Amino acid sequence: MRRALSIAGSQSAGLRENFGTMTKPFHAGRASESGVVAAEFAALGWTATDIILEAPRGFFQAAGGGFEDDFIRDKLGHPWTFASPGVSIKPHPSGSLTHPGMTEMLRLIKAHHIVANDVVSVKVGTNHNMPNALIHHQPQNELQAKFSMEFCMAILLLEGRGGLSEFTDEVVLRADVQEMIQRVHFGVDDEAEQAGFHKMTTIITITLKNGQVIRGSADFGRGSPAMPMSYDEVANKFLENCAYAHFSLASSKKIVSVVQSIEQLTSIRELTALLSTASA
Q1: Across the chain, where does the E strand assignment appear?
Q2: Fewer C-beta neighbours within 10 Å, C or N terminus of the chain?
């Protein structure tokens, strides 16, 4: 394990300046690949230091200027985050920091029957860490829109949803979308800041033409361990993704059914065969 960590430590990277470009998802994909390669190399006997994390010339010192021993020692796997607090599944194809706001905006739209043409302005307030990642305030393509709180609020007001079909260059550049983006003002809010960085507190204030002011807030988004999606909600997202990729609808629905009872499969080949035929 130490050797695999050391090999992976020499491959890790990912900088927020690339958010809104093709390189952003490459960060996560390459990191996962590097972890697998490191484990395989270590298993083959590839050599590496056994103190890559804590050494004076190691990862923590180079990447963060040091570390606190009490926060690290005996913490690997305690907790195992897949089990506690659990994984997050994003209902929308945008940066996770947009999701609390999107979840709350959808709730407000439905609860108050908000119509886009009635909206004068939308104020979105968060802690100062979130604008550091959501850096595109007037996005010009779908990649930038994924890291634009303004777009995410605007598209929900206009379309009532924010799926793969909404995150396209054509939709982002639509005149009504660009105009609605101008009505959304995103920045730091003192109340959200005081809630702490362990939350993604997002406070929304909507002003309507009739003078009504509607306010709401959320600490976490739909799909997070605090507000998990149901199996059917995840299945619907999967089916939408399959349709977007022109996969077979019949095979896609069969996959949903098989995964629901995956523990009863006698062979995983039953699932992998479906996955290969769905994209054929």
Answers
A1: 119-126, 184-188, 202-208, 213-218
A2: C
| Coil/strand/helix, residue 218 | strand
Residue 224 lies in a domain: no
Shared-domain flag, residues 115 and 177: yes
Residue 38 lies in a domain: yes
Q: Are 265 and 255 in contact (CB under 8 A)?
A: no
Phi, psi for residue 214 in degrees, rounded to 5: -115, 130
In degrees and rounded to multiples of 5, residue 137 shows phi and psi of -95, -20
Structural domain for 260, as ranges = 231-278
Q: In this predicted model, what pLDDT tens digit does every residue of 121-140 receive, in sequence order? A: 999 999 999 999 999 999 99
User: How many domains is the chain built from?
Assistant: 3
pTM: 0.86
pLDDT tens figures, 45-75: 999 999 998 999 999 998 889 999 888 889 8
Q: Same domain for 137 and 192?
A: yes
Q: How many CA atoms lie within 13 A of 40 on its CB side?
A: 6
Q: Which two tokens stand for residue 82?
A: 């897949």
Q: Are residues 61 and 109 in the same domain?
A: no
